[in-house]
Design a protein that fits this description.
The complex is a heterodimer of chains A (73) and B (396).
Chain A (H helix, E strand, L loop, with lengths): L2 H32 L10 H23 L6
Chain B lengths: L1 H30 L4 H18 L23 H20 L6 H16 L7 H34 L16 H35 L11 H17 L2 H10 L5 H20 L6 H15 L7 H30 L2 H24 L16 H15 L6
């Protein structure tokens, strides 16, 4: 039985999904903070939010790399 | 016979397409991230592109579940015909019931049934069934559901905004998750195209090889690739609205952050499973994610009745498709008349189910009631409520 493969699939799924969701959530949160009108937000919030989204974009590109067999033959 | 098998294989590809639109597009449709029609069009295009990306032919039709090959039994076009028939009928039944169920498991079931009836029980590799169908069916929803649960919790915890002084809830501004949903669900659709269209290409190519129309070991002909790609894309575009409804609103109510968490879990689980050597069914992963994310968000409930019906559907997939495959195989064995009877009966059954489906049509207009954000919520809700009353019993 392929228990090792099963375990690696489960842990890879867990780690990568949590990473992407945490990054994206941080991005959403920071965008929300940066958009606050009542309090003046710190200047670094918006760039940091964009960095989070960019990292998520990189994750998507890695997904594309995995899907398209041309890249890893 | 070869022509019959090819057309049946293409029709199976079509049912596979509309059966699995929901995996990628149910949650973005439910949260309003993408408009229903746009979503299925996007999924169709991605499936089409995906089908052209990967054209490697599998070495065996059944992936080792039937002991085929040089030292095993010979899978004839008759067996493939019967297997496809079983798979298509089961796909149509589950679609009519709005149940998401794995198309590849239906195909395996049909082939197993056909092989038992046509060759004998010794043709089946039971260890392989356990390893490739039964265990993944148990673990796919567990893994995806667990990950989606955790992700949903995290997403909500990280974006929960409270006023530091009064502790009141601020505007949460979680609409940004909708944009993310577009990307994650697109990945799922593309991955689906590369995997599932390829299965049909493999079957057709193996049939052509076994009939001596194509040299052994060669790849699929260009017309096979094109036909399969378009069959799955058209299937996807016609949208399995019944299944989208089940996945998008039947299991639980989906909100953007939750939908994003679910789709991310689905996408990562599928990519991990296809690259780390433990194949999981897309449908089962996606259903598990939706249930898991529903458990993760506070203030929502998972409709366990629906989840239970889906699980029962999965239990029946193998035996039901198998029995239909076996019956077809027995008919086909009797000769040309049997083939004609089987083909006619199959077409009639599909047509009957299609007619049945027209009695309570589910389309892009009423698949999922979308809640608009912001101030319009109250107003929109009332409007859609009256709409559903006008539609009468068609809604539920």
């Amino acid at each position: 039985m392929k228990w090792l493969e099963l375990f690696s699939v489960a842990s890879a799924t867990l780690v990568s999904a949590v990473t992407v969701v945490v990054l994206y959530s941080l991005g959403v949160r920071l965008t929300a903070i940066a958009g606050d009108t009542r309090t003046s937000p710190a200047a670094w919030t918006r760039p940091l939010a964009y960095t989070c989204f960019a990292l998520c974009g990189a994750a998507i590109l890695f997904g594309l790399y995995l899907i398209i067999p041309y890249f890893h033959k | 016979m070869v022509a019959l098998v090819i057309s049946l294989a293409l029709f199976f590809d079509f049912t596979n397409g509309f059966h699995d639109t929901a995996n990628a597009m149910a949650t973005p449709i439910a949260t309003g991230a993408i408009k229903p029609k746009t979503a299925v069009a996007l999924a169709a295009v991605l499936n089409l592109v995906g089908a052209f990306l990967s054209t490697e032919v599998a070495k065996t039709v059944s992936g080792g579940i039937i002991k085929e090959g040089s030292d095993g039994v010979q899978i004839t076009p008759d067996i493939i015909f019967a297997g496809l028939m079983g798979a298509i009928l089961w796909n149509m039944i589950t679609w009519l019931k709005g149940l998401p169920s794995s198309s590849s498991h239906a195909l395996f079931g049909g082939l197993i049934g056909a092989a038992i009836a046509g060759i004998g029980i010794h043709a089946i590799n039971f260890e392989s069934i356990l390893q490739k169908i039964i265990l993944p069916a148990v673990f796919a929803p567990v893994i995806a559901g667990g990950v989606a649960y955790l992700c949903t919790r995290l997403a909500y915890a990280l974006t929960a905004r409270h006023d530091p002084e009064t502790g009141d809830k601020l505007t949460q501004k979680r609409g940004g998750f909708r944009t993310g949903q577009v990307f994650t669900s697109s990945l799922v659709a593309l991955a689906h195209g590369t995997n599932d269209a390829q299965k049909t290409m493999g079957i057709i190519t193996l049939v052509l090889i076994s009939a001596g129309l194509q040299p052994a070991g060669s790849g699929p002909e260009w017309w096979v690739i094109t036909a399969c790609a378009f069959a799955i894309a058209i299937g996807t575009y016609s949208g399995g609205w019944r299944i989208i409804r089940t996945m998008g609103s039947g299991l639980t109510e989906v909100k953007p952050a939750q939908g994003f968490a679910a789709e991310t879990s689905t996408a990562t689980a599928i990519l991990a499973s296809s690259h780390l050597g433990f194949a999981l069914s897309t449908t089962q992963v996606a259903s598990g994610s939706v249930v898991g994310s529903g458990m993760g968000r506070r203030g929502t409930t998972v409709r366990w009745g629906t989840a239970g019906r889906i699980a029962i559907g999965w239990l029946f997939t193998l035996p039901a498709a198998g029995i239909m495959g076996a019956l077809t195989a027995l008919l086909v064995q009797t000769g040309v008349v049997g083939v004609i009877i089987a083909a006619t009966a199959g077409t009639a059954a599909v047509a009957y189910m299609f007619v049945r489906s027209r009695k309570s049509p589910v389309g892009s207009n009423n698949a999922v009631e979308i809640e608009e954000v912001g101030q319009a919520v109250q107003f929109r809700k009332k409007k859609s409520a009256t709409k559903s009353i006008k539609n009468g019993g068609a809604q539920r």
